[in-house]
């Protein structure tokens, strides 16, 4: 997957993961620049051996989720190519949301080597996210 992205620091998965194809979005320069990618399972998206993956479970109708978007862009920009941020639409990916017991949105889950290592529901300020990332980004 990394070969398909020039700057794989921010991704957007708004189509169902179980569908025929997914669209991921890189926001290194623009938050609305779409790249078609081959079908990927959620486990393939979060299993990034060299970098942590921050997953934002959101919904398009959710006001607090919209508040998180610029915060996540800021966090992704601060960490350069050392972090991948993925947004998962819970309405279109209900099975993944259920698997990780997402009961409120937005919910952020940080994965390191494919395993969840930190979780927070609600709007989270950038400094709190950065503090959670610190042990995994600096390795």
The percent of residues in helical segments reads: 25-40%
Number of domains: 1
Oligomer: single chain
The best one-word shape is: globular
Q: Can you describe this structure?
A:
- By secondary structure, this protein is α/β, with parallel strands linked by helices.
- The protein has one domain (7-137): Glutaredoxin, CATH 3.40.30.10.
- It contains 4 helices and 7 strands.
- The strands form 2 sheets. The protein has a 5-stranded mixed sheet, covered by helices on one side. A two-stranded antiparallel sheet has the order 2-3.
- The longest helix is centred in the middle third of the chain and has 16 residues, at 63-78.
- The two termini are 21 Å apart.
- Residues 1-38 have low confidence and may be disordered.
Give the SSE layout:
Layout: E1 10-13, E2 22-26, E3 33-37, H1 42-46, E4 53-58, H2 63-78, E5 84-89, H3 94-99, E6 107-112, E7 115-121, H4 126-137
Parallel strand pairs: 1-5, 4-5
Antiparallel strand pairs: 2-3, 4-6, 6-7
Quick structural gist:
With 139 residues, this protein is of the alpha/beta class. It has a single domain, classed as Glutaredoxin. It is built from four helices and seven strands; from the N terminus they run E-E-E-H-E-H-E-H-E-E-H.
């Amino acid at each position: 997957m990394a070969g398909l992205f020039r700057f794989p620091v921010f991704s957007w998965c708004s189509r169902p993961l179980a569908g025929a194809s997914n669209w991921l979005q890189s926001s290194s320069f623009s938050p609305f620049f779409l790249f078609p990618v081959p079908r990927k399972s959620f486990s393939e998206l979060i299993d990034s051996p060299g970098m942590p993956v921050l997953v934002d479970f959101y919904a398009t109708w959710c006001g607090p989720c919209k508040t998180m978007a610029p915060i996540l862009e800021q966090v992704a920009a601060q960490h350069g190519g050392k972090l991948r941020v993925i947004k998962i639409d819970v309405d279109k990916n209900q099975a993944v949301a259920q698997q990780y017991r997402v009961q409120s949105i937005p919910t952020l889950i940080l994965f390191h080597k494919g395993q969840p290592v930190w979780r927070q529901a609600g709007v989270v300020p950038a400094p709190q996210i950065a503090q959670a990332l610190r042990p995994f980004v600096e390795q």
